[in-house]
């Protein structure tokens, strides 16, 4: 069958760079779905996106849909024939509706009943008749922000300026809001012209001649290669930030990288401020020496060729130097303020309407942090560091530098606190309190930083949930999900000696002393537990631990999170252990019966057979080493000790009826099983684990 190359290009006014990655993803997925739903086979699908266009190139699209031979089921046979055995009106009407006659009827049985069927031949539609409906794909794209233009009713990311739609060399008729498809595209805004595309296969080559690199990966690689060439020529190092690289790639159609300079005097400002100014305001890449110290240079990417590049360079240098002068001014002015004066300004900054000011929040965090420090057994010096770090944790939020560069909160707090002579542990904690800032970020390394970080995050989470600000769907204005994940990671990584439940009780107890109006803190506590359980489950799933195993190890609470994840990983691994099935099944039998038992001492004098004695004796032998291994967090070895009970448990149930009429004997047997269950509970509730087909 003959195949075709199809091109669709939608030209627009410049789109925001931050939307391009998701737009291209949607374009690819929705085009593939459209083709599959239309039953049009193809070999390859390419997508392209620049600030001024998005496009699809479909290779080797078949000329028509495949023909279909379809069996259509009609009414039951008893309805399709009348009492005389003739075809009824229902049968005749069914056939007529399918373009058939009663002579075409066949009878088949479905689920024990006879039905009438007819076979239909559906000729495949021509691709040329279907392709204009690509308009529906375009209009189905979702954007965070849309706009209307002129008198148009369509809401779209930016005004549509042109449409290219080609089936090989022929124009596919299409129209969106008065813009009619043609074979003419537009090149680079300043270097290109309007140009005809004679054949869909020529798309990339035609655009390249017009100074447009349509393929995102190719455009990005050009930038990387150009930066490498500058590194080799100048002898410096450019750490390429992946997010900035992606943004710059989506800002240009034809990239040309160049380097510029700024005054060395600006290097007196903390490099984080310089780098933030370069990246966020100018989209420049900072430059370093090979020893990683910052150099007074930058790499910029021009949207165009290298003509008059020196003029462009001077213009960029002028703009950056003005920006950096502002940073120097902010830095100098901030140092004129005392930490206490800044802290006092927090009384006028609202954290959340129902939760008070930032000063109120700092007061709560300070109390929580001191209680955690005491619970963890820190020495007096560390407790003092925790108290001071929490007390001044937000002072930098009122500085001019953080007001200008919000992502420097904590970073500038550390810098300014050090300049004011604060304890080094306190300075470090001011930055670490915000860690992890994102999924790949480091965790706070110091115990002081960990405590302030957890205290701050727990205060936000408990407070927001207490006043009804639980995240819903994609709405999470206070980043509670990210902050709770940070707490989970900190508690797991550093193995704090307090359980999550103790931590939550501690935070709730401090909230109960405030004037914040909350109906019932018991309800708040349950909501917070459920919220954190969801985060634990998410993190566990990311490590290939299924939800039933998470439920098993959290049946009695989250406990100490590093222990939780160790147990979960062990039990998940045991799914693949063929020999563990017998142990798990034996312990589940014990646990199901033991749920009905009271925790009493076992009386050996009430045993009536050897299987009871043997099980009890093995339990006594196993119990002490098992508990020791649990205390030492040697969970695999503890589980091995439990498995030694398996033969005796099997013998016990083979030889012994537990629920006998004699209450003393029955309760004694239940007490024996209860003692075993108490050991198993230290690892998890095995009754919740679904031992599936792996066994």
From TrEMBL:
Its main location: cytoplasm. Residues 584-680 form the DALR anticodon binding domain. GO terms for molecular function: arginine-tRNA ligase activity; ATP binding; glycine-tRNA ligase activity. It comes from the Bacteria. Keywords: Aminoacyl-tRNA synthetase, ATP-binding, Cytoplasm, Ligase, Nucleotide-binding, Protein biosynthesis. InterPro entries: DALR_anticod-bd (IPR008909), Gly-tRNA-synth_bsu (IPR015944), Gly-tRNA-synth_heterodimer (IPR006194). It is an enzyme of class 6 (ligase). HAMAP family: Gly_tRNA_synth_beta. Belongs to the class-II aminoacyl-tRNA synthetase family. NCBIfam families: glyS (TIGR00211). This is Glycine--tRNA ligase beta subunit. The gene is glyS.
